[in-house]
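Entry 14. Structure prediction run on the chain below.
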Amino acid sequence: MGSQSEIALAWHRSKQYGVDPERALNNIAIAEVDRSSRLLHAAAPVLEALTEQLEGTRFGLALTDRDCRIVYRWLADPSMDRAISSIGFVHGAQLDEERIGANAFGTAHELHRAVRIHGGEHYAEPLRAFSCYGHPIKHPLTGRVEGVLDITGAAADSNPLFAPLIARAVADIRTRILEGAQASRRRLFEAFQCATARQHSPVAVLGGDVVLVNRSCLDQLGVAGPALLRVAADELPRDRGIERPLYLPDGAALTVTMCRIDGTEDGVLYRIGKPRPQQISHPAAEPEAAETVFVTGEPGTGRSHTAEKLAGTVLAGNGEPLRLSPADAILGAVPEWHGGLRKALRENRTIIVEDVHLFPEQHLALLRSIVGDRRGRIICTACRDEDLAGAVAVLAARCSRRIILKPLRERIAELPALAAPMLAERFGTPAPVFTDRAMEILRSRSWQGNLAELRALTERLPALSPGTGITPEHLPAEYRIGTTRQFGGMDLAERNAIIAALEQAEGNKQQAAQLLGIGRTTLYRHMRTLGIPDLS
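Output returned:
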């Protein structure tokens, strides 16, 4: 059980979180919990047996989930029940260290090991009347803490024999979780066998660490297939199947039909359809014909590349395009700049105006006039669409087409397709591809540098043989650090939601927490758990 040094460290963490011992329990947040969760299903008979053993005592039982929320509580003694309820220990109460300081639930969850916190060892003053034994329940396959089981009683009734009792109960719950996981795997295999027996078209089944694909699926999707499919399933609702496009690294587009597999926690059956008639890899890849285009996006999203591609295809003019930068406008003489622009128009050349939001007003006035009169082939690039203002916003409105480039964090499903040409440029063909494990790490990144960061990553990879797999060991050190946990499913959705909230709040944690409907300390804990860097 918890040593004095562990308790001391727990107190130190509590102080760092800014928890006030006198008011700590005011921080308890109550939320709805899943009463039909697999954890509760596995624990139910074990909890029932424990309550029979504790009947007639002043001790109680409680179980928290992976978010440290109470999903089960039982107290035989009415006075103890009232005492526990009065301090906020009710169904749905969140009891992590960052919220209420050192306690048997939060500290056991933090340490990943059993702890006993007796009387005054509790950080919150109202808890010092109790003695608690908390034991984490680790998933037998993934090692992740699924919850914490606790026996609580009055401090005067402390009994060291409860430690082995609760350890035995946790072992029984883990056994039942394992049995459930094995049953889930059987259902995954059965679903795969049933689907492949009826047809020879590409079929895949993914769930947990199980990946099942038939030969035609492997031929169709390649090594990056499982990563693509996992990302696709993030938008799959619980109650129905859906069909959506699936973009491959070579740019080809397929259809994939997905449905959840009953009796499994995250099992999904995929049926890969025929290639879609149109090939769309990005809104800017195949733009409609237009004479004036306004391209916006964050730095690194490919604004210049998009402008160059447009200038070489649908907006190609005579000769080389004229490229104008803010430095040209700011440092050059105004008459010469205007003269060069008009000359390019007469020669029917395409004009690329980079970072037009940085241009002086007198230059913008000429560009607005030209664009408004549709007198040439002009491509302007600028900052994010939502940051456009004043004269630049007017210029954007006058262009016949606007292309908004999404940041890479919002295009995670396209990572294999976006990386493929960069890898081919770096290594030649057939280019190496990111393995499933490496792609999981890349999917968990925030990609603040967008496509430029992805390209820089490919350039830092070691020399590899053609067609080989890029493993996590090939990635730069900073990509591997803190990535022992892989994100997928709800974890990835939660991570992306937090990153989006932080972006919207411009890094303000309090505002981001309010946008997400959670406490600031909870936000900090999830940021650490999900590997989101604190850049403030």
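The radius of gyration is 29 Å.
Filed with the rest of this week's runs.
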